[in-house]
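Field reference: sequence -> structure
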Amino acid sequence: MEKLTLTSNLTNITIVERFVEEICEHYNLNNTYFGNILLTLTEAFKNAVIHGNQNDSNKKVTILFDAGQKGLSFVISDEGEGFDYDSIPSPVDAEDDAEAEKGRGLFLIRSLTDDVKFTDNGRTVEMVFEIEGIGQKTMKNRLKHFNQYFKQVKQKVK
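Structure field:
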């Protein structure tokens, strides 16, 4: 598990972007995963800074990252008052542009993650990206090819 603690300053979004780049590079994730992770994590960070911590640079935003059997998990927490995440309207149902802007970040997070959970009265959001066993599918395919190859070699030797 990796932990990133940042002050509530939107300029720190570049650190979040680099964090995502390093993770995606390490796990050799394709551009689709990279784009979804980058967009949702930066939206969650912005929400934590602006709405959660009210742009108070004395407060922190914490990002926890873990890679597990099902995929990648990111937990973003702020030090704000929290919010009722179920009361935020979908921008799809908005009547005007100003109203649509309000729920855009949460809409993106809910749309681009495989699972999202809000806890601690809305101060914490967990986003999960289901990536089959992080490389296990590739490893199984390679093993299958090696086994086929060695079966062929054994048959030729007989």
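Note: Helices lie at 13-26, 31-52, 97-102, 104-112, 136-157.
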